[in-house]
Design a protein that fits this description.
The complex is a heterodimer of chains A (284) and B (266).
Chain A lengths: L1 H39 L5 H5 L12 H32 L4 H13 L4 H15 L6 H25 L3 H9 L4 H28 L4 H5 L20 H9 L4 H36 L1
Helix pairs in contact in A: 1-11, 3-6, 3-8, 3-10, 4-6, 5-6, 6-8, 7-8, 8-11, 10-11
Chain B lengths: L17 E12 L2 E12 L3 E5 L6 H7 L10 E9 L2 E2 L7 H7 E4 L10 H10 L6 H14 L3 H4 L12 H14 L4 E5 L7 H14 L4 E5 L3 H7 L2 E6 L2 E7 H6 L4 H7 L5
Parallel strand pairs in B: 3-8, 3-9, 6-7, 7-8
Antiparallel strand pairs in B: 1-2, 1-4, 4-5, 9-10
Helix pairs in contact in B: 3-4, 3-6, 4-6, 6-7
The chains are: A mainly alpha (284), B alpha/beta (266).
């Protein structure tokens, strides 16, 4: 009897400990978001989004940084998507399972864990200097594309792997070639999963600062980029720049910019969740 | 073990009736010998059933005829498989072309996660056929062949995943028929279905043999007895006995066969 009581007590203790642990993260995040909202919300208006940077805090806006982020996001997608998906298809459907492919697999997973500043150094050498792109949007996008490539590959492979073997069997049995099976069955069936992975990877890219600073993205650009070869800034760098200024007005600006950045990442994650749910229903 | 085949089936003089033929076939998965040397001839426009306990190699053997083992890691084959007298394991054989001639129906209904129409049209579309009218007619004809048309004709654009298991399996057969194969391989096509759906599929097989050569793997001895003209009993990678179904089920030559069909093992 005593034993049962003791066990029940332990059970209860653990339950509340678990609740406390769960809440800890959420509460901290809520406090953070709350204080940011209090600081920055009143600063957000259309002018803030469409204004160029300025030395006066109340006239400064995020237009150039926001446009820089959009440029980087689009170009990164265009570069990372075809590379990542093609690599994933090769590894999953074409490569013979053996020592070489498992070696590749382990290394790709490891690449996902390499600190982003290392990618920045790689990008500085290869894209900025050797390929002579300079500190351009294109160089930044290539660097971020490298950074998220492992994530795209891994999540695309997971999505393709989730398509039942029976679909491949059925397609082959009807006389389809491997490529036809990939293009007409596997990719459409795993589209939602691939998209989810890609969006999550991109939402990481949009928040990256270190590698872009390393390749020479500017903290102050008077104009939004108009071509891939233009110099640029991005939102996180703009925030970093404002935070480090002594005037109080810029702190408010930084908080407001953080809200915008958070909105963008939440929106992207939301879209990812939406597609994941839709996709699961379709396969089920 | 070679040439366990009954005399009246091994009849070299009338080669035409032998649609499928295996000559000294051995299959290895890495070092495991799954098929230990089988010679066999299968007649055209008949239903031939493969029976035997799990792991006896009957599914592996079946899948040799449309080369579906090719992608299995460690697969290796010796001997020859002939269709209409042509060795299908020769280097220059176009595997995709072969599989259009040899259809396959699987154990679990495996429709594509697409619409009913797309499922049936897929085999034709991958051949490059784009003519909408032709595709439509072919889809209708194929669905009628499996007696599914009346049940789905208003829902052709609905997902095939919404159909019942039995309907899905008939859809899979329709999909196979649409590419006009001459041979249909069936790997336990009713093992995942309820008795009513099973009866429908069996009826269908009976009708299909007018036009097609059918080879069916089954665990259900009654089913083999009901629908097949010939039955082959496999055990541990060998062909033990192969005869007219009536003979094999009522008066088998081998003790092992009798033990199996009377349920003493397996």
């Amino acid at each position: 009897m005593n034993n049962i009581k003791a066990n029940r007590l332990k059970d209860q203790i653990f339950k509340y400990w678990g609740i406390a642990c769960t809440l800890l993260g959420l509460v901290l995040l809520a406090i953070f978001i709350g204080s940011i909202l209090i600081d920055g919300l009143q600063r957000i208006d259309w002018d803030f989004i469409t204004s160029l940077p300025s030395r006066k805090a109340e006239r400064a806006g995020i237009y150039t940084a926001l446009m820089g982020s959009v440029w980087v996001l689009v170009l990164t997608t265009l570069i990372a998507l075809p590379l990542g998906i093609a690599a994933a298809i090769y590894l999953e459907e074409y490569a013979k399972k053996g020592r070489l492919s498992s070696l590749l697999e382990v290394n790709i997973s490891n690449l996902a864990g390499v600190p982003s500043i290392i990618y920045g150094l790689l990008g500085l050498e290869i894209f900025v200097r050797v390929a002579e792109m300079g500190s351009s949007v294109l160089a930044g996008s290539f660097t971020l594309a490298l950074l998220i490539l492992p994530i795209v590959i891994v999540s695309t492979r997971e999505a393709i792997k989730a398509v039942p073997q029976s679909v491949r069997d059925a397609s082959f049995a009807l006389g389809a070639s491997k490529w036809q099976t990939v293009a007409r069955q596997l990719l459409p069936a795993s589209f939602g999963g691939i998209l989810t992975g890609v969006i999550l990877a991109l939402s990481r890219a949009v928040g990256e600062t270190a590698p872009l600073i390393v390749i020479g993205a500017l903290t102050y650009v008077p104009f939004a980029p108009e071509s891939p070869m233009d110099e640029f800034s991005v939102l996180p760098i703009q925030i970093f720049n404002w935070i480090s200024r002594p005037q109080e007005g810029f702190e408010v600006n930084a908080a407001a910019a953080i809200i915008i950045l958070l909105l963008i990442t939440f929106l992207m994650n939301g879209i990812a969740v939406f597609f994941r749910n839709k996709w699961q229903k379709k396969l089920g | 073990m070679t040439q366990q085949v009954n005399e009246n089936i091994v009849d070299k003089s009338i080669k035409r009736v032998h649609k499928l033929e295996a000559r000294g076939v051995k299959v290895f998965y890495d070092n495991f010998e799954a098929i230990k040397g089988i010679d066999m001839q299968i007649k055209a426009n008949k239903v031939t059933a493969f029976i035997g306990p799990s792991g006896c190699g009957k599914s592996t053997f079946l899948r040799l005829f449309d080369r579906m083992n090719d992608y299995v890691d460690g697969f290796r084959m010796e001997g020859e498989i002939l269709i209409d007298g042509e060795n299908i394991y020769k280097k220059k054989v176009n595997v995709e072309q072969l599989r259009k001639q040899v259809g396959m129906v699987f154990q679990k209904p495996n429709p594509f996660p697409k619409s009913i129409y797309e499922n049936v049209a897929y085999g034709l579309k991958i051949q490059g056929i784009k003519d909408k009218k032709f595709l439509k007619e072919k889809v209708e004809e194929s669905l009628k062949q499996v007696a599914l048309w009346d049940e789905v004709k208003d829902d052709l654009n609905k997902s095939a995943m919404a159909l019942s298991g039995g309907q899905q399996q008939r859809l899979c057969i329709a999909r196979t028929l649409a590419v006009e194969p001459s041979i249909i391989l069936m790997d336990e096509p009713t093992s995942a279905l309820d008795p009513l759906s099973t009866a429908k599929i069996e009826e269908l097989i009976y009708e299909l043999k007018q036009k097609y050569t059918i080879v069916i793997v089954t665990h259900n001895m009654q089913q083999a007895g009901r629908i097949s003209d010939y039955t082959a009993f496999f055990y541990l990678g060998e062909l033990i006995e192969y005869d007219k179904s009536k003979k094999l089920f009522t008066n088998p030559e081998k003790q092992q066969t009798e033990n199996y069909i009377t349920g003493r093992f397996g």
